[in-house]
Please model this.
Amino acid sequence: MQHLTTNTDIRQHINTPLEEKRQGEVFELEQPMVADNGKKFYIESYGCQMNFNDSEVVAAILTKGGFGVTKDYEQADLILLNTCSIRDKAEQRIRNRLRTLQTVKKERPEALIGVLGCMAERLKKKLLEEEQIVDIVVGPDAYRDLPNLVVEAEGGQRAVNVLLSREETYGEINPIRLNSNGVTAFISIMRGCDNMCSFCVVPFTRGRERSRNAYSIVAEATDLVNRGFKEVTLLGQNVDSYKWKNPETNQVVNFAELLEMVALVSPQLRVRFSTSHPKDMTDEVLYMIAKYENICKYIHLPVQSGSSRILKKMNRTYDRAWYEERVAAIRRIIPDCAISTDIIAGFCSETEEDHQETIRLMNDVKYEMAYMFWYSERPGTLAARRYEDDVPLKVKKRRLQEIINLENDHSLERNQKDVGKIHKVLIEKTSKRSDADLCGRNDQNKMVIFPREDYQVGEYVNVLVESCSSASLKGKVVGYA
Ligand code: 5AD
Ligand code: SF4
Model:
């Protein structure tokens, strides 16, 4: 999943009455009431898209509890960090952030500091011992309890709730969109993970896998469309294993069917999703992507390693041949589909030959994009307990650099093939580099930059691509799409 960091801003929250009648089902999402308690919260998010979306659920819960929001932590009565544990570096970053918040606590001891998310879940009470300024520790399944925990902390007690749940999906909560461009939004369709990849802390921090009520997902997408949003990204650690059983009819909805339900909300709504798992991605899903123009032709399919021996040790439950067959299926069923991946360099016992297998796989697939990391041992994981973290850091970093260099070549090569062609782009924002330019993504999730002229965020335009780098495409608008 994409990793981002931002501050908070609540905009564009319009209370829309909601009635979802698709397929005879009605689902009403909760709309937060604004009953001001005079207190303000500030929230900062780290880690994956799921975490950013969780902060939006937290915002809805706190708003309902009477809190207002502020973008300025100096003004906040409650300062929240929604944290990530995926690699040691992610946790170090939070620790450093807590250091800088010490001054706030000194100047305003009554301000409460809360740590949310994966790091809270991993460290539990220990976090209170290690970080003196923290008042509240809340795991990913306990956000409904936040208003109570705040009351407890206001009474002078340090408050912890890190209970994991087998049922919690926050299904009926309508997230308050933070830092929204009013065009693109995340929708969580499931929580947790049952895969137990040996390197990964997620099953420990986010608990067992559970799928959210399909009609609540459709209701959320419908609400977003009614408010002018044009794109949703369906989020889960492993979206292909989405499975929701309607308790009234016993009808089961799988991921392919859910994709169709969301695609049918509006032909003007683009549908994206992340993350796919090679072991579970079915042809049925691929045919569904091919069937609907508004389901984007882009699949994030983490491979982690090109060596079957390492994949086995990682407990990925597929081998290289299986992965290559899934890539071939994508190419066969959706010929214009972009594929991106995640790769870990220097996992336990990785040899130069294993590394070369990863390089060879990359040369075979030629990914459009990749997120690449060196292996960081996480306490409590299968790998930490069973295998020695025996690849020297220097070697990990060198292998990672080779992987990054190769990926840059491939991204550039792929982007060069887009030059001279017209791409349908959904305008998302002003370009980072220049106020005179706008940018947005094409179907394949590539960032396209073009002169602003009179075009507006939220419009679909056709862009003739004239040049590219390994990171983006550049061109000019030739008309509305
Ligand atoms: N070390 C390095 N990278 C990791 N990832 C997950 N756990 C670790 C770890 N311990 C990477 C994987 C995953 C992505 C979200 O983060 O590639 O797909
Ligand atoms: Fe997301 Fe994983 Fe980080 Fe948790 S540990 S925030 S699930 S990337």
Remarks:
- The chain is about 30% helix and 20% strand.
- The CA atoms of residues 346 and 392 lie 8 Å apart.
- Residues 422-480 form a domain with the OB fold (Dihydrolipoamide Acetyltransferase, E2P) fold (CATH 2.40.50.140).
- The two ends are 29 Å apart (CA to CA).
